[in-house]
From TrEMBL, chain A:
Superkingdom: Bacteria
Name recorded for this polypeptide: Putative copper-transporting ATPase PacS
Transmembrane spans: 122-144, 150-171, 183-205, 211-229, 366-385, 391-424, 676-696, 702-720
E.C. no: 3.6.3.54
Gene that encodes the chain: pacS
Enzyme superclass (EC): hydrolase
Membrane topology: Multi-pass membrane protein
Organism: Roseisalinus antarcticus
Subcellular location: Cell membrane
From TrEMBL, chain B:
Species this protein is from: Roseisalinus antarcticus
Name of the protein this chain belongs to: Cytochrome oxidase maturation protein cbb3-type
PANTHER family according to UniProt: FIXS PROTEIN
UniProt keyword annotations, A-Z: Membrane, Transmembrane, Transmembrane helix
Sections of the chain in a coiled coil: none
Stored InterPro entries: Cyt_oxidase_maturation_cbb3 (IPR004714)
Transmembrane portions of the chain: 6-26
Presence of keyword ATP-binding: no
Amino acid sequence: MAYAEQPGPAACPGCLMAPQIARTARKARAEGGEEVQLSLPGIHCASCISGVERGLMDLSGVRDVRVNLTRKRATVRVDADVETAQLVSHLARLGFEAQPLDSATLSSGESDRAARELLMRLGVAGFAMMNVMLLSVAVWSGAADATRDLFHWISAAIAIPTVAFAGQPFFRSGLGALRGGRLNMDVPISLAILLAVGMSVYETANHGDHAYFDAALSLTFFLLAGRYLDQRMRGVARSAAAELAALEVPVALRIGEAGPEGVRVAEVAVGDLLILRPGARVPVDGVVTDGASEIDRAFLTGETDPVAVAPGAALRAGEVNLTGVLTLRAEAVGEDTVLHALADLVSVAEEAKSRYSTLADRAARLYAPAVHLLALAGFVVWLGIAGDVRVALQVAVALLIITCPCALGLAVPAVSTVASGLLFRRGLLVKHGTALERLAEVDCVVFDKTGTLTLGDPVLAAPEALPREAMAAAVALAQGSDHPRSRAIAAAAQPLDLPDIRLTEVTEVPGHGVEGFWEGRRVRLGRAGWVGAQGSGTMIAIEGAPPVALEFRDRLRPGAKALLSALDLPVMLLSGDAEGPVRALARDLGIDDWQAEMLPEDKARVLERLSAEGRKVLMVGDGLNDVGALAMAHVSIAPASALEAARVAADVVLVSPDLGRVADALRVGRVARRRILENFAVAGLYNAIAIPVAFAGLATPLGAAIAMSTSSIVVSLNALRTRI
Amino acid sequence: MNVLAILIPVSLGLGLLGLLSFWWTLRERQYDDPEGDRHRILTDEYDDHPKD
């Protein structure tokens, strides 16, 4: 259904002015200062709210704090000299995890306003509906003559301005569709509302006994309720997605005239020299001009082995620097980076996805012309039978009102709201409007390895099988280093009772490894070539003894094993990593169908082939090498730890660290689809009974009011049954 | 039936009162943080210096 947000004048002066007045007042109270937004993922209770608010107010320079628990966010107004990092570290001391949000990325004002407008229209329609219903009860219970006319006139006085105000979203969208030469759901809705009011006024003026003011208003009310739910669900998903984007405040360290300065990545120009500290992500594509280090390319290629780089090596945005400080000359920035080249691919796939026709679209395409033809048929037939235009028009309007897609308008948004709320609480963010329905159709799941099934940080394989002396030396060397593999060695040593080895002159050689001296013998931990051995990988070498190879495995993401054993669909593993680790992981998880050393294009090609075979593939991946595949798949999920490009391409973002939630998403998608179909069945059944009655000219305003409310309520209650 | 002359304005007035209070809650942004307000009402810490 075309629930496009229509740009237009605000619904009421209150919607537009009130927030502004409130904002101005608050601003005046805080007397300027800067506004900082913090994300507080951990807060959940009353004492969290007061803890954060009081804790921050204790800091000097903080003027105003307001926690929003629904969005898990705090808006802090501070003096210009207060650093955001200060607030974050203060909150960390108090025990609250906080992350600064980029307020430039975060602008939810427009969708907030649209939601408030719809709520105002809903309120007005609700008020008018209740009052007119009360007046109608008197008419239904037998008021006649002058009293009935009086009640009808009062109803008209309430209904006409209400319809003119509250019905605007339907009129605008219906008019837009007609101008484009199309029919959407809003055309019969607008027609039914307007004709019902118009004919009722005519009947009232002629002292008739049937007026449909109540039906026109309840129609408006129920349909607005559906639209409000839809709008709110999209608003929540959008604000959460914007929050994910705002979490990454992209900063680069540029060598300026006055030494290194932090600048936004958007401001970096080609030719700028940037400093890249260990642990930092490469902000733009460029060439190393100075320094040596190791680079983690897992995000781009899925390789788990770090790559050594020296001056002259090309770096691409998204890679992570591991050991040494590098100086980088920017070669391509912004839209020219490899990262952005992928955006084209994504937008092509987006277009394909927007052509996906939802159940609601398909229902509307059948429904809208049918309703018009039916009403026209009623008019023609009755004109033939009775020969009276007034009677024929009455039947046509009754048909339009009775068949109006009230339940149909609620059938989809009510289910989607309940289902995406359910998934949101389980740590899954549904970004795309039709993602739930596409999830229900999945018949094949494709996984990426590094960063998706595994966490991307290494674990030492079989530490107890290594010579104790070599292991002890490796631990002693590793303790001083922050390299992921060093940390893995240190962690693996803890349960082993190793002899304490004292090393002297421990130095880290960026790009190669760590070396030190033990009882006069040189000890090296690092790349095979550097420690003086054949082969590749990481080795430990003590002078005078043969070097020992250290094998690393990738740590499994929590829930990966449970997910793979719970999935009842065919599963594939596509990885850019070398064959060895992929084979080991596939064996561990019981995946028979796997492919290693895949280039990004290969992955996309496999997905293309599968969809050409008619498979509906769910792609789960996180890296840049997955972006093409994510965009190509029928529906896709990316973990929140993925690069922004992957999260943008994916339909659903997995915020929870537990991969097992993917199974929940599939289950909820299927249940939601079933509920939507059930709701359509309810609406269809109701029409099957109501249409013949209306066609026979037996429909009364009372009957229409009861039938319409009942079907809407049944549909909403059925939506609430969406549980796992 | 003269009682209608009083009852109808009264019922409409009551309805309007409801509509106005709804408009007021909307204006006061009471629907921005339903989750937080639900918890705030239960807090046992008292603000001795309310801002307004």
